[in-house]
Structures are given as C-alpha cells and as structure tokens.
Amino acid sequence: MYTSNIKTTDDSLERIGGKGRSLARMTCAGFDVPGGFLVTADAYRAFIAENNLQSTIVDRARPTLKDGYPAFDDCAEQISELILNAPMSVDVVTQIKGAYGDLEDVNLPVAVRSSANAEDLPDFSFAGQQETYLNMRGGDAVTRAVQKCWASLWTAQAISYRHNNGIAQDKVAMAVVVQTMVPSEVSGILFTANPTSGERSEIIINASYGLGEAVVSGQVTPDTYIVQRPDLSVKESVLGPKEQKIVYDGEQGIRIEDVSESERHHSSLSDGMINELCKTAIEIEGLYDGLPQDIEWAFCDGKLHLLQSRPITNLLVQPIDVEWVPTLPAKCVSRRQIAENMPDPICPLFEDLYLTQGLEAPRDKSLMVGGGPLFVTVNGYAYQRFDYATIHNNLETRRKRNEDPQAVSEQDIEAAEYAAFKGDIIKLKAKVADAAEGDIEPFREDMTEVDRAAFDQWYGEQTDEKINSRITMPESTNPTYVAFNNTKQNDAVLKYWYEKTLPRLESVADKWRSLDVASASDLELFDGICELAIEEGRYWSDDSTHTFGVAKSTDDQLQCFLQETLPDHNFISGQFLTGIESKTMQSNADLFKIAEMLRSDPDLTYTVLVVPSAYLLQALKEHEKAVDVVLAVEQYLKQYGHQGYSMDFIEPTQMEDPSALFASLKGMVRDRNYHPKNQGKKTAEIRAAKYKEISQLLSGLEYWQFRFRWWLARKYNFIREEVAFRFGYTWSILRPMADELNRRLVEAEILVAKDDIFFLTSVDIKKAIKAKASHQKPDNYGQLASQERVLREARKRHHPPGTLPAEVASIEAVSFKETQIKNDESSDIMRGFAVSSGTVTAKASVILGPSEFDNMTPGSILVSPLTTPAWTQLFANCVGLVTDVGSILAHGSIVAREYGIPAVLGVGDGTKRIRHGQTITIDGDLGTVFIHEDE
Prior knowledge:
Strand content: 5-15%
Oligomer: single chain
CATH architecture of the largest domain: 3-Layer(bba) Sandwich
CATH superfamily of the largest domain: Phosphohistidine domain
Number of helices: 32
Number of strands: 27
Mean pLDDT: 89
Strand order of the largest sheet: 20-27-26-22-23-24-25-21
Distance between the termini: 55 Å
Largest sheet: 8 strands, mixed
Number of domains: 6
C-alpha cells in the first residue's frame, strides 16, 4: 500500500516522514488534527525506480562553482524537471485518488504537505525547504500536488542543506501528508519555549487572520503574545499590523487579500483562545516527553485545530541570572594574562587540573592575601587575582591605630594601593635604569653603519654624565617601564625558558605520547591526564609568564613612549613591529603551499571548494589525485595540529578536527590573487612610511630614545609567539586519553555521554574509576556531568566583565594591565586598544568559534571573542580585526600587524553588539569601531 490513514500507528520515519509521523502521533493521542491520509515514501521510491531516476538524480545533485562558492540552482532545476515530467504509475495514482475519494466530501479542499524522511528532527531545521500546496480540490489536482512535493525534495535550498550537513543525497525520500483544509479565521504558530531567549517559562504565540501560511512564511507581521507558563497569564502582547491575509482562491489555490482597517487594530486572539492554545500546547509537549515544540494551529468557528508539531530546533539552554562577584578569598580579579586565551566558561576538569593545580604548581605558598590560587573563576570564566598585600596592610595599620576598619572607603584603599605602587615604581626604575645603561653598546652595535655614525656624532656631543640612563629610561610615571627594560634581565629570562621550561614540557609530552591508550589501565589514563594538564599549567607559571612578559613589556614601553612623546600623532607600536618571523606566520605560509597544490588541478580545486570543511579530509583521502595533498595535510597537522582555539582542553585541537583549518584553506584556494608575500610587502611599506614620519618629528635625545625603545621591542617581540605556539602542546595527547577513559566509564554505565569526563573534577573521576573496578554503578556522576554541561552552555550567554569589582579598574596598578575597555552601550562608537594601523569600512564576519569558520566572508572584518594561533589562517580572508578581549600584545595584535590590516582589540562585547553582515568602520590608529545603522 502506498497510502495510509493519518491515524496510523506506523511510527516509521523512513516510511511516513517527520511531519507525517508527528501528525499521526497527535491524532492517535486524541488531539484535534484535521483528517486525511499519508502518501508514504514507498510511493516516492517506486516512482523514482519505475522511471530509472535515482542514479541520474544523485549524479546531478552536485553543485557548480559560482565565484568560488558552490551553487545548486542549476542542478535543482534539472532534477525538478526530471521528476515533474516523469509519469506516475497507474497503481500509485489510483491509490492517491482512492484515498482522496474516501474523504468526507467528493471535492473537499485539502492541504498537500511534504514530509521528508530527514525533517522535523531536533538537530536539523528543514522548515520551508519543501513545498506545501493549499486548497487543492479533485483527484487530479491532488495527485499533481503530490508530484510537486516530490520535486520539492530537490530544491536548491534542500540539496544545499543536506550537502552542508553531511546527509547523503541518495538516502532521502519523500512522504506526503494530505489533510482536510481548515478555513481558519485566525491561525499561527506557538512555541512552548521562547525560541529567542531559550526561556522555558514563556510560551510565545504568533497569530494573524486567515490561513497560517501567512505567518509561517513571514508574509505578515502577526500579533505576538508572551505567556507566563506557570499561570498562563499574558506577560506581554504586541499587536502587529496584520495588513494582509491568505484565503482560498475560489476552487483551487490561495490568494492574498487586504485585512480591513478595523481588524488590523484589534487582537486576533481572545483571552479564552490564548488560554486554550497554551493548555493544549503543554499537553502536546508532554506527548513528546517534554521536548519544547513548534506548533502550527488554526481556529475555525471557535474550534482549535492542530496542523503540525515539531521540536524547536537549536533551542538555547535555559537562561540563568548571574552575579559578578568573586568568591572569597578572592576580592579583586581581572581577565588578563593566560585567562585571555579562555574565551568561554571553562570546564570543571580544566579548572581543577590546569587553573588551580597546574598554575600553582611552581609555588610552595600562595602569593595572595587570604591564601588561595592566583587564578580563579567567576561564573565559570577564568580570572587572575589582584589581591595585593598593600591594601590589606593598610587596613591592618588602621586597626592598630584603633581606627574603625569599617570606615575605610574604597577611595582610601585605592589611595593606599596607588601610593605603595608608586613607591615600588620609583625603586624599580632606579634599579632598572642602572642595569639598562649597559645596553647602549649592544644597541649601537646592531645599527647600520650610517645610523651608527649618526649616533656616535650625537653621543660625542653630550656632556650629561647620565646620558646612558636618559636614553634607556625616559622620564615617565607609567609603570610599564619598571620591568624587562634591559637585555641582561631579558636574556636571563629567555635562557631559563629555552633551557628549563620548554624542555620540561616536551619531556612530559614525550613520556605520555608513547602510551598505548587502548591497552593502558584506567589509572594510567587518569595519571596521564592529570600530569599533562598540570604540566601545561606549570609551563605558563614557570616561567613562560615572564618570558611572555619580556615581549609584552618591551612592546608596551614603545607604545607608552610614542603616546607620551607624540600624543597628537596617533603612532602605535604595531606600526614598527612588523616583519618579525614567527611560527604563526610560518604556519600560514605552509598552509598556502597546500593551497597551491590544490590550485594546480581543476578537479582538486572543485573538491576543496565544494565539499564542506567537516567532510573535506575524507573526500581528499578518497580522491585519486590527492595523495600528495593528504600527505602534506598530515605533515602540517603533525607540526601545527596541537594548536587549539581555546586553552581549555574540552575543545578539540586542529589535529583532531581540522575542519576550521580547511575553512581557511578554501579561502586561499578561492582567491587566486592571494599570496603571503603580498602582506609582507604591505607591512614593510607601512613601517617605512611611519619611520620616515617619526624621523621628521623627533630629534636629539627623543629620537634616540625612540630608536632604543624600537630596538628593544623588536629584539624580543618574537618570543611572544614562540611561547604561545606551545599553548595546549599536550592536548592532542591528553584528549585521546580522556576520550578512552570516558568511553570505558560510559560502558560501565557510570557516565552517560561523550565528553562527560570534562565536567567532573579529578577527585570525582578517581572515585568513578574505583567504582568501576568494584563493579558499582553510581548514578550521580552522569547526572552531575549533565548539569555542569548545561550550566556551562547557559554561562556562555553572559559576557564577563574585564575587572571585578568594577572600581578596581581605576587603580593604575590594574588599569595598565586591562584587556577590555568598558563601552557605553548606547553609543554607536566602541573603543578598544589600537594595535594595528589603518582604517577600513566593511561588512562584519562575527565568528564565535571554529564551528563558524566557514561563515567567514572574504573581504570582511573579523569580529571574534579573541584569536589564538589556530585562528591565524582566517586573517588571509579579512580586511580588519575586532576582538572582545586582548590588548597590545595579544595574538590578534601580532598577526594583524603582519597582515597589514587595521585592528582594534579589547572592545568588551563586540561579538554581542555587532551583527554578522553589519557594516562597521574600524580605525586601528585611534582604537575605535563605528557601528553603522542598518541601511
């Protein structure tokens, strides 16, 4: 049989499709669903087989390339023509007409709706991709509408969606729902949870006059009602203009007609109708085990009819309220230093092993007043503490003087901190100035002969006995000059990093890389996870933080000198710190070599531009011409694949998931004019122009002070990327161990889902391993992991402040280390750190993480939470950069300079305020981002 009554108990998705299965289930449960029948997917399959269309369709369901992007219009048109022109068998036609004839009226108007075998599922949104035909009357019209529904399985949108989501084109089929039409006076959509916010306590109703197609298709602006779920009271109602409605067009089809002026200004639903709708919707949600539903409904003659129900796709997690208050003993915290590389709330295991145990590993006691670790979390986001002893000492002094400590104001605390900090600056500057005097000779030796001669002539004319320290230490109260100001100190720090810190990390990595994960015991896997994570934390604290600080401080010193000496000229250090080799830029050059291999062959070019990034590696492995390309990709991943998109090891590395990398590779292949050498030429021109300009503005002592600061910054700038290149160095070893241990605990029914292990602490995991060994099945660990997973997703929707409490940001000891600038949300101008010179106006590509790299539009401005080395390849396609977090020596700053694109970092919440595709103007000299109004 090719048809079935809509009240069937058949629950086969393959046979009756998503829509048909849902309607059948509601009908059998007693809900008022319009009667009708289903044309099963078997009819479609028989039709395709009888006309020998399957191989032709699958072969033609391949995109063409238009401007380097896959396009499906041509193949969709060809396939649709094949289906519409092929004859339907007598058997199928007879059964469709027979089922239609069995309805209550010989010429009954019906709706003919597509019901594909891969639609109306929680993870995929197929809404609007296949056709619906309304007010069809007569057997011939219904049969033709069924055939048109079959053809709509192959629209350009439907083919593209399946292509991008890895749904095999040869596996899809189409059932069709034929339902009695409801000549509704009012109809619309109801969501049993707020689809915009994810709020489960709100029911959202969209309603308008006439048939529901007007609301579903977005042809009218409907009335909107927000209903409080607990008591079904209307929290908010907004009357839409409802200017038009869809009605029957005589004996066949539909038409649009205007709504009367009087009706437009009235609510389309009464309180009673709203109440009935909501009660029924909650019952339907219960039918689907509490899964929030998207329900189409209609009222006719005061009676409610249910036309469809499907899961709300991609529904956000339930929102939560948070307070941004550090947990004691932490009091003052800031999202800086290593925390800059953690854009999202971190998982519990990472917080435990890396943030707490690892970063504290080199210390035998806490550096913070009140004890506790240097790094903490607030609502899951990583922060560095600023609990200075000077503040607490000031309070203790007041107590000894019998003064009321409660009377100490925040201003008093800030003043005490500032005074103590200034005292430290004076002492440190004197010490550093003496040490830096010895740098005059190496500074001189590194000059060209022409510059050395000019310096010697000027230097010989000086009579000031302190001239060396005046060159190396400008007069300034800025705290940036107090550290890493001389080569003796800086070289000692780098020597320790190269001889101690880096080899230690590599040694631990080598130790665990040789472990056979499959045969290792549970405790061996656990020990490996712990040691690798803790060692990664130690890598930063001992002594990468200081090595990193050498690059940051010398860069900051150049920036400070430029701003204080030439405040009206908008010079920034980044204009002078380009052309410095790094592994980050080398990785981009190596990726381009792979792009050149792909460009050289039309078949490979087609494959890389057409196949979605998530499936590209497999496609290349199966391509007979791609053997060398695959080897090159594997070599690339071996060298650079440990890099991740966040420090948190819950995120896959490039080696594990190279799809984001391939999104960048596509851009290089697509743009035939792209070559890494072009950016080097551009930045060299900027550097030369800025040097010429500043040489005309400075002379004498100020000129040579600038040259010294420039020399020192360029000498050490490279080490920043050397240190950062090893961030997450062992994650590609750790993650397979965690995955295997997680698999075993799921198999033992202690955990439930993939990656659950990341949502437990090391103590929890050790207990779980012990339970597994004794064949116990505690049920709390899977539940705990699930709760922590949901909590992390909810926290992602909040933007963490840069410094807590907010008033601490005004303390100079903290403010000069800030990595976010607080902006006025009512202003269309955002301010951040000016890090790379130039001005550009373009559309924004708002990219929140690697899963969105394919959304990067060539020629746009990249707007992201931050960037790490794994983001570097996106820079090849962008003309500017804006980040939420970061400052002068963030990764994005370094790379933007080398690409010669303007960049403004640390704007705070750019990814929330700027929309994907919105036009913005960024000024990398002033540090501003102008958000244009919608055109």
